[in-house]
């Protein structure tokens, strides 16, 4: 069992035969990061990468079992955390199966705004610290595709970009792309496909 004590970590899985990394999301301390009993370092497809300065605690199976016996409330909290992680994984899988890439990208930006309580940039827009590479990994698309979409979103005054930052100028329009009827997102996605 791995416990994130401070900082922010990115969870991802390696997909397919070529081992493409697909982000599952960010976790902020305190968080319990579960490992299955059979996991051995380097053999599983799940990856954890520090996004900021992090501090972790690692417990072996016997140490962890002893903690659970000694502290029943801790055991209950761990069970809730593991169920929450499983729920996030299931939501991630179902979202990737049912949501177009533009919707996944928009949802990721909106989630980061709410997770980070992103500050306003003075003109009412929200600032999110992320790169187009981050967006590509979280949406499961190429960076080239993200760049095309971002140019369209900039042209429509929905977002602006500047060196590792995304400025959300029109959150309502971004929400439509993330959760709308799909017509707007389908049209934008079609416009961004190579012809």
Which percent range describes the beta-strand content?
Answer: 15-25%
Q: Compute the gyration radius: what is it?
A: 19 Å
On the 0-100 scale, what is the average pLDDT? Answer: 76
Total of domains: 2
Largest sheet: 3 strands, antiparallel
Contiguous uncertain segments of 5+ residues: 37-44, 182-187
SSE pattern: EEEEEEHHHEHHEEHH
**Fraction in helix:** 40-55%
**Total of helices:** 7
What is the tally of beta strands? 9
Question: What separation lies between the terminal Cα atoms?
Answer: 48 Å
CATH topology of the largest domain: Jelly Rolls
**Which CATH class of the largest domain?**
Mainly Beta
The CATH superfamily of the largest domain is Jelly Rolls
Strand order of the largest sheet: 4-1-6
The shape, in one word, is: elongated
Architecture per CATH nomenclature, i.e. the level-2 architecture of the largest domain: Sandwich
């Amino acid at each position: 069992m791995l416990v994130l004590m401070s900082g922010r970590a990115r969870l991802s899985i390696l997909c397919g035969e070529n081992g493409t990394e697909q982000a599952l999301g960010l976790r902020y301390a305190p968080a319990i990061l579960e490992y299955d009993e059979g996991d051995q370092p380097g053999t599983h497809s799940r990856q954890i990468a520090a996004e900021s300065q992090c501090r972790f605690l690692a417990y072996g199976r016997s140490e962890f079992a002893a903690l659970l016996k000694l502290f029943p409330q801790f055991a209950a909290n761990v069970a809730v955390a593991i169920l929450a992680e499983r729920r996030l994984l299931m939501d991630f899988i179902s979202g990737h199966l049912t949501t177009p890439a533009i919707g996944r990208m928009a949802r990721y930006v909106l989630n980061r705004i709410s997770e980070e309580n992103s500050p306003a940039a003075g003109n009412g827009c929200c600032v999110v610290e992320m790169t187009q590479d981050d967006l590509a990994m979280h949406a499961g698309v190429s960076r080239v595709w993200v760049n095309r979409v971002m140019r369209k979103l900039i042209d429509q005054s929905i977002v602006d970009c500047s060196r590792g930052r995304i400025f959300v100028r029109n959150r309502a329009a971004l929400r439509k792309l993330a959760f709308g009827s799909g017509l707007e997102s389908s049209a934008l996605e079609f416009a961004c496909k190579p012809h």
